[in-house]
Design brief:
It is found in: Cell inner membrane. One of its GO terms (cellular component) is plasma membrane. The protein has five helices and no strands. It is mainly α. The protein starts with a helix and ends in a 14-residue tail after the last helix. The mean pLDDT is 90.
Length: 168
């Protein structure tokens, strides 16, 4: 199960990297278009879609690598059961909020598909397509928070002192 979850987080990170390259391509295409007097419609919109996709798809991987900003002022002062209790409480809130975020992101994709919602730009992109990345990213983030909660409940979660990050 651990290999499958790590593969999921890593796969989303690689997909986020692909979308970052997509941002680069769209920006370069826009710059070159201005330089050589040609226009490719929708480059701004597609750059925005790719940027949002990259951000959402990288969330779970960033969490699992302990790269999210975390305020540990109170947590750092606690030891033993008090620290574990606060960790579990914080992770429970994170599971709840990320679950709600994932639910509404998936619902948004469904509604956009159902209503045939398209972008207002000249590209007229069906909005459910770029929204899929947001839904997938939030769903995988929810899974990552559940994973962290289970690891904490079992006492298997890695501790970081706040000044270090986990790199492989």
């Amino acid at each position: 199960m651990r290999r499958t979850l790590n593969a999921l987080y890593d796969g989303c990170a690689w997909l986020a990297a692909v979308f970052m390259i997509g941002v680069l391509v769209m920006v370069l295409l826009s710059v070159l278009g201005r330089q050589f007097q040609f226009h490719v419609p929708g480059t701004d919109a597609y750059a925005g879609y790719a940027m949002a996709a990259a951000g959402f798809l990288a969330l779970a991987h960033t969490l699992k690598r302990n790269e999210h900003i975390r305020v540990t002022l109170v947590l750092g002062k606690l030891k033993g059961r008090a620290r574990r209790g606060l960790e579990l409480w914080s992770l429970s809130v994170a599971v709840l909020l990320s679950g709600l975020f994932a639910w509404f992101a998936v619902r948004l994709v469904w509604q956009s598909l159902e209503f045939n919602d398209i972008s207002t730009g000249n590209d007229a992109t069906p909005l459910w397509i770029p929204q899929l990345a947001m839904a997938l990213g939030t769903l995988v983030l929810f899974i990552a928070f559940v994973d962290e909660w289970v690891l904490e409940a079992r006492g298997q979660r890695q501790r970081f002192d706040g000044s270090e990050t986990h790199h492989e």
